[in-house]
Structures are given as C-alpha cells and as structure tokens.
Amino acid sequence: MTEPALDLVIAALEKIRETNDRFPRASRTVLAHLQATSPVAVFLPATPKSNEGGRERSASRTERRLQALPSKAELLEPIRERVCACRKCAHLACSRTQTVFGVGNPDADLMFIGEAPGVDEDQQGEPFVGRAGQLLTKIIKAMNFAREDVYIANILKCRPDMPSGSFGNRAPTTTEMQTCRPYLVEQIDVIQPKVLVALGAVAVEGLLGMRGTMREMRGRWHAYNGIPLMITYHPAYLLRNQAPSEKRKVWEDMLEVLERLDQPITERQRNYFL
Ligand code: URA
User: Fold this and answer.
1) What mean pLDDT is predicted for residues 162-178?
2) Residue 119 belongs to what H/E stretch?
3) 118 alpha carbon to ligand 1 midpoint, in Å?
4) What lines the ligand 1 site, CB under 6 Å?
5) What is the distance between the alpha carbons of residues 30 and 34, in angstroms, rounded to a whole number?
6) Of 53, 63, 163, 187, most Cβ neighbours within 10 A?
7) DSSP string over 7-56
8) Would you place residue 165 in the very low, low, confident or very high pLDDT band (cuts 50, 70, 90)?
9) Looking at the predicted structure, is the pLDDT value of residue 60 above 60?
10) How is the chain split into domains, by residue range?
11) Which residues contact 266 (CB under 8 A, 6 or more apart)?
12) pLDDT classification of 48: cutoffs 50, 70, 90
C-alpha cells in the first residue's frame, strides 16, 4: 500500500473511532492480508520520536522496518492446522478419515466451491478426486487451466457421516454448514480470487445462506463479499443427468467466467460441449 493510501486508511479509521461508540474491528486474517497487500513493507506501530516546534512527529515514516511478508500459502497454513484439529461437529470428527482443506494455487484468480468431501475425498484428503471430481477437472482443462492453476474447496471440510454399512454420500445439514463456513470464509479472505464458482445449490446455501432452485440461480452473476460469483450445476448433477443441454449450460456458465477473467476464448471453446 502506498504511503498516501495508508495515511487515508488510518485517517478513515481514526474518524470511525472518534464518531462511533465501538472501535473498528478486523479479523486476524484481514489484518494479515492488509499487511500482505503492501508490496515492500509492513508498517509497524508509530512511536513518537521528536518534538518539532511543539508538534510531535511520528517516527514511523523514518523508522519503517522491513519484514518478510507472508505469502498467501503461508497465510493458509494456520487455517489448515485449525481445520485439521477441528472437532466442532463431534459426529463428523469421529467418522472422518481426515479433513479435506482445499487444493490448488493460493494465488488463483479462480476458485471453485463444492459442498463436502465424498468417500474418495475423505480417503485421499483432497477435494474433487472422485467421479464428480474427474468431471470438474475435465471442465477446468477445457477452460485451458490446470487443476494447479485454480483453487478448489468445499463448504464442509469433513465428509458427512453415513450409517455404517450404507453407501453413497449425504448432503450436509444447515447446522454443519454454518459451523464449518467460517473456515471457507477465511480461505476466500486470503485467496481473494477474481471470480468464485459455486457448484450446486448446497454450495450456494452454504456460502450465501440463500436457498433457491438452480434453474433460477445458475448462469447469472451474483456476488460474495464483492467478488463476482457464478452459480452453476454441480458436476455430480451432470453425471446423473447426461442430457447434452445440461452439459452445455454448465459450459456456457464457464464461458461467462472466462470472459470475466479476461481470458482469450477460442472458436473451438465457444462451440465446445462438455
Ligand atoms: N463433491 C463435492 O462437492 N466436493 C467434493 O470434494 C467432492 C464431491
């Protein structure tokens, strides 16, 4: 952050403090991220140094110390550790093989959000590695990205438990999603992607707290915390419903995403069917 910009931010915060009963607050993640936005320096608290003509002059301008800035990958690590140790949903902590934090490039412009790990993800500790995941990977490749270029995470970091002996996956409950959501919020706060993609209605409910039919929500731009959010069908839906028209809808949503990211789109991509 440049010096005049930082001065403006400080002046605005001081104004809020003067005119409000409550002090401005910011989470640890936001503070760390604010520091990370400075290209060179972390500004340490100002300590009065000299008294020039009766006016105290802050020493911060001249005594600015340089510190190594944390990368986004480093900022994600403490969140990952808290997720790993999380036992807020005791039933899921007991049934999981491991937590599934997220995967990909912490500096990604594009972030996909799914609902929860399934059996394969629970076993491998990585989101979207099962059948639905393979289809998502295909979609990402058709967009001319690699899985390593984007970031992929779920609303829930644990696999929703299933009665013993039963197969398949169940949808997360509202309580489970509300309990786990803060981790995803922190991940997005750090990554600050240019575009978010919510895969399916459960991801939308988990992230935005909004319930609706995919028919009315998908294919349109929404926003999460000022970040453009595209809602599209979950790849598992495309596996259940193989109609070309449904696949084409998802692909059209992805073309919108590419346009929003200012990515070149080839004629082949325009005519592509998943
Ligand atoms: N479905 C999801 O929503 N997430 C996964 O990680 C796998 C399947």
Assistant:
1) 91
2) helix 119-124
3) 6
4) 114-118, 121, 127-128, 130, 132-133, 154
5) 6
6) 187
7) HHHHHHHHHHHHH-SS-----HHHHHHHHHTSSS-PPPPP-EEEEETTEE
8) confident
9) no
10) 3-68, 72-270
11) none
12) very low
- Output the CA 32–ligand 1 centroid distance in Å: 29
What atom of ligand 1 comes closest to residue 127's alpha carbon?
6
> Given this model, what pLDDT does residue 10 score?
62
Element of type H or E holding 253? helix 244-260
CA atoms within 13 A on the CB side of 98: 13
Please identify, by atom number, the ligand 1 atom nearest to the C-alpha of residue 115. 3
Pocket test for ligand 1, best of 83, 121, 140 (most atoms within 8 A of CB): 121
pLDDT value at 43 more than 70: no
For residue 21, report the distance from its CA to the centre of ligand 1, in Å. 44
How many residues appear in the chain?
274
pTM reported for the whole predicted model:
0.79
Locate the ligand 1 atom nearest the alpha carbon of residue 121 and give its number: 6
Once rounded to an integer, what is the mean pLDDT over residues 51-65?
Answer: 44
Which tokens go with 183? 């981790």
Q: In angstroms, rounded to a whole number, what is the distance separating the alpha carbons of residues 224 and 245? A: 28
* Cα 141 to ligand 1 centroid, rounded to whole Å: 18
Report the atom number in ligand 1 closest to the C-alpha of 200.
3
Q: Which atom of ligand 1 is nearest to the CA of 235?
A: 1
Q: Which amino acid is at 20?
A: N
